[in-house]
Structures are given as structure tokens and as C-alpha cells.
Design goal:
Layout: E1 10-14, H1 26-31, H2 43-48, H3 52-66, H4 74-88, H5 91-105, H6 109-115, H7 124-138, H8 145-152, H9 158-181, E2 182-186
Antiparallel strand pairs: 1-2
Helix pairs in contact: 4-5, 4-7, 4-9, 7-8, 7-9
Length: 188
């Protein structure tokens, strides 16, 4: 048995000044309406919305991949995002998606195993998803039919596999946006 890891939220600090809501253009304000969380418009969103058209395109795609009903279960999407974010070195996204996975599954066993670098303690499904996420993130051009077959061997159908590929792949993009536009650090 391994002890549990407790991940505290990180704070993201932009390198480009975010759009301040009182100074936002009507286009920017309208673009921010596609943000999944209506509770808070983050500095990250306000940084991306400098270009409202690309922000909307990015966010609509992100929402369709991560929050769509049906297909791959949401915790599995979060595990794919977590695996990709760990490989890509995006601590902010890794913490966000680790916490979301733990919340959705009501367990931090998978997150603990990954953060303590004990993937051998994962169940077959989580191990296959994590392995695929790491492999696809490290070298997408090296993916083979064997990688797909490993997902089929744990019961995934083609729709679920495509959903997982989308979740992992969008974090190749999302992690790079986060890295270039700012940095994360522990809250004080």
C-alpha cells in the first residue's frame, strides 16, 4: 500500500498581461462566454482572449473533447490529460487534471500511483490509458497498431480510443500554450 498524495492547486502567472474585463472589447466578452466555467474567468482565459476568434475555436474544440456526453468516460479523459501533462512537463495542467480525476473517481489511488512513480500499482485499464498517454505524448509518430490493440484488450471500442487520442493530443497543444504564455507556482 502506498500513502496518498495531496496535490494543492497551483497559481498560473501570465507573461502577457491578461485582458481586464472592464477594458475588454465586445468581441472578447462574447468569446469568453464559451468558457466551461461560468464561475470564474481565469487569467489564462483572459490572456488567450487577446485573440477572441482563436480563443473561441480553441475552447469549442476543447469543450467538445473533454466535456462531451457519451464515448469515453470522463475520468479516462482526465487520466489521458494527466498522463500527457506529466510527460509534457506542465505541472499546472497535471495538478488540475489529477485533482479532477480524483474528484470524479472519488479516489486518489491512481493520482498517488502516478505522482509516486508507481504505475505498476495501477489496475489494467488505468495502466493501459496512462501508458498510451505517455507514449503518445512522448513520440506520437511512433504509435503503432500494438498501441491501439492494448486499448482494445482492456475493452475500449473505436469511439473510446478516438476520444482518448483527442484528450491526449489536445494537451500537447494546451500544455504548450500554458508554458509559452506563463508559468505556474505553488500558492502562497
Amino acid at each position: 500500500m502506498i500513502s496518498s498524495v495531496r496535490l494543492k492547486p497551483l497559481t498560473w502567472h501570465p507573461y502577457i498581461a491578461p485582458v481586464e474585463l472592464p477594458q475588454a472589447t465586445p468581441e472578447q466578452l462574447d468569446a469568453m462566454k464559451v468558457t466551461p466555467s461560468a464561475k470564474k474567468v481565469s487569467e489564462y482565459v483572459r490572456t488567450l482572449v487577446h485573440d477572441p476568434e482563436s480563443y473561441v475555436a480553441r475552447t469549442v474544440l476543447f469543450n467538445a473533447i473533454m466535456y462531451v456526453e457519451g464515448g469515453l468516460a470522463r475520468p479516462d479523459r482526465e487520466l489521458g490529460a494527466l498522463g500527457a501533462s506529466i510527460v509534457n512537463g506542465c505541472k499546472f495542467c497535471a495538478v488540475v487534471h489529477a485533482r479532477r480525476h480524483a474528484e470524479l473517481t472519488k479516489s486518489d489511488d491512481v493520482v498517488t500511483a502516478l505522482y509516486l512513480e508507481r504505475p505498476e500499482t495501477l489496475g489494467p485499464r488505468d495502466a493501459a490509458i496512462n501508458s498510451f498517454a505517455r507514449r503518445l505524448s512522448a513520440a506520437p509518430s511512433e504509435a503503432t497498431a500494438d498501441d491501439i490493440n492494448s486499448l482494445r484488450s482492456i475493452g475500449m471500442d473505436d469511439i473510446e480510443i478516438i476520444d482518448l487520442i483527442h484528450a491526449i493530443s489536445i494537451f500537447g497543444w494546451a500544455n504548450r500554450l500554458m508554458h509559452v504564455l506563463g508559468h505556474a507556482e505553488s500558492g502562497k
